[in-house]
């Protein structure tokens, strides 16, 4: 009987811990305040991926083209969808949770550089983010 009670208690604690770890804050206060896994190293040197404006990307970008954008993430539109803005315009972007910088919260007023791939389709156009760098 003691073993069953211990097992049930352990199961309940694990379930509560999992729920707390995956809970999302109500409302948009930035991408996420949840703890991120330990950061992996990444390259920080020069890049041959072109730095473009949103307007340049929308006007001349090709499907699957790699690009860099600099500006601000101005809103969270639900799930992994956000809106990005620079001086030339706005574009819908997709950011997976693991692509946010580890240990950093990004607000709508912070300038960032996005590295990713342009997805130009018949019904939707968006920028799929692979890496975010906070600009100082």
Automatic annotation (TrEMBL):
Chain segments carrying region Disordered: 25-47
Gene3D superfamilies: Bacterial OB-fold
Keyword Signal: yes
Domain of life: Bacteria
Keyword tags: Signal
Signal peptide feature range: 1-23
The name this protein goes by in its record: NirD/YgiW/YdeI family stress tolerance protein
